[in-house]
Design a protein that fits this description.
Layout lengths: L2 H19 L4 E2 L9 E7 L3 H16 L3 E7 L12 E3 L13 H7 L5 E4 L6 H9 L4 E5 L9 E3 L7 H13 L9 E2 L1
Parallel strand pairs: 2-3, 2-5, 3-4, 5-6, 6-7
Antiparallel strand pairs: 1-8
Helix pairs in contact: 1-4
Length: 184
């Protein structure tokens, strides 16, 4: 990693910490079976990821859950036929901080559970997950993942299907009455 990239990443994390200090709300663990509002972050650059997300949305919709998806495209193009909300490079500043009404609206949604399905390091999606008003945030094990409530470490080569299976299996065993709410 170049010195310039390291410096920009440090500025990104400083901006994130500054914004996190301004937030104050309760995180209340929600049992997966009782969750009604699910948020999903995904890297849309791989079409296979979108097909997996479509199946995830369909499965959760059958369980009477409302699922909102925010996808990240690694380009500045418009995607008029894309079925979910998205943002791209045009919505990101020099220090990889996403902005815009779509991003802010997603951050402010009080999801019961938020899943970040992006397996590779993605500063923009991690930024959104960190600031999310979700009661529980689930993400992959990566560098700087201290803002997740549940971190799932998956072996190299396993995809987001495996991640979803592992996360759901763990979440199904969590009973919310066993844990206290944490103030953020």
């Amino acid at each position: 990693m170049s010195i310039g990239k390291k410096w920009l990443d440090q500025l990104h994390y400083r901006a994130l910490k500054k914004r996190l200090k301004l937030q104050s709300f309760q995180r209340n663990p929600v049992e997966y079976q009782k969750a009604k509002n699910i948020g999903v972050l995904v890297n849309a650059s791989d079409p296979q990821n979108i097909e997996i997300v479509k199946k995830f949305v369909a499965t959760n919709s059958k369980s009477m859950r409302n699922v909102k998806v925010l996808a990240y495209f690694h380009d500045k193009e418009e995607h008029p036929n894309f079925p979910y909300s998205y943002f791209g490079k045009k919505d990101i500043n020099l220090i990889s901080k996403p902005s815009g009404p779509t991003v802010e609206q997603f951050i402010n949604q009080p999801f019961d559970i938020l899943f970040n399905l992006c397996q590779e390091k993605n500063l923009m999606l991690n930024y959104i997950a960190a600031l999310s008003k979700a009661h529980m945030r689930v993400g992959p094990f990566q560098e700087n993942t201290d803002h997740y409530d549940l971190i799932v470490d998956i072996p190299q080569g396993k995809g987001i299907n495996y991640f979803i299976q592992q996360a759901e299996q763990i979440l199904e065993n969590i009973k919310s009455d066993q844990y206290e709410a944490s103030k953020v």
